[in-house]
Amino acid sequence: MAETHEFKPLKELGEIPLGEDGALKFYVDEYKGYKYASIRRFVTSETYSGPTKSGVTLNSRLLPLAIETLSKLPAQPAVTEDQELARWPKKAGVELVARITIFKDTTGIDLREWVDEPEYKGPSKKGVRIPYQELPKALEFLRQMVPLIAKA
Q1: Does the 11-147 domain belong in CATH 3.40.50.1450?
Q2: pTM of the prediction?
């Protein structure tokens, strides 16, 4: 019998709708015995419903750093162009970068892995863009994740 690959996170904390066909889901997941805070884009269509490759994971070291940085942002965006907020090492050759981004006249918070390898330096596809107006809700979900991924 074929094995099903149904998506089953350890705990879902909530989601932020992204138009009619998608949402950012905030959940705790486990990989190789380590728990991670995950933010991933999910889509719903006639041919596929489920997670996409667009997502980012934060371990127990990165999650508080991201919360601290995002908590300092004003309720309304005060920038008119892209602005880097913070950069944290994730693993060799990879950093997690938090940025305010402007795309199609909308402001968002981009959490994305940036790679530094001989063949390519710059942003990767591993990341998410949180609509700026949804920042309070995103921070609430992220704060709820802290005790769930804390090292025992």
Answers
A1: no
A2: 0.87
